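WARN no homologs supplied; continuing
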Amino acid sequence: MDWNLLATIAAPVMAAVIGIALDRGFKKRPKLITYLGYISTFTLNDEQHTIVFTHSIIVRNIGGKSATNVRVGHNALPDNFNLFPNIPYEVKKTPGGGAEILIPILVPYEQITISYLYFPPMLVADINDYTKHDDGFAQIINVLPTPQPSQQLILIYKALVLLGLILLIYILLKSVIWAYSAIPA
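OK structure emitted
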């Protein structure tokens, strides 16, 4: 085995991996995700049998830095909404007739729930539009109830992925060594 060839190939790859890891470690950024939560319909026990809709969204900062000027945009903002936990916010009207809920700051790993109560003909699709902050847009995730795998199963998955990665690197190195040895001197 030609150790010089192996070192020549492995050194830049290792440097790139270490560089990416250090870059991610030093560049802490905010990262917002928004979950569209439960949508419900109620028929009230009044004389008109009034129909009421509710839903909620969860905005969470999963990044390592505070997200500033978080804006939750609405095509139409219902009169009845609630933020939990109770944090400072401001409602700003937008030129198209909608509104934004402006939250000055979400610290790392903080999450808020915004719950809405509204009446027909307004629907859930008529309300929420976007979530963004000073560093970009939030990732929108639709929540689906699913069973969670056990910790042992997750550990087995991680071990198999690591084993596959080691095997892939081994095969690539062997291929490069074979290709280099096939070149006439």
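The chain is about 30% helix and 35% strand.
OK
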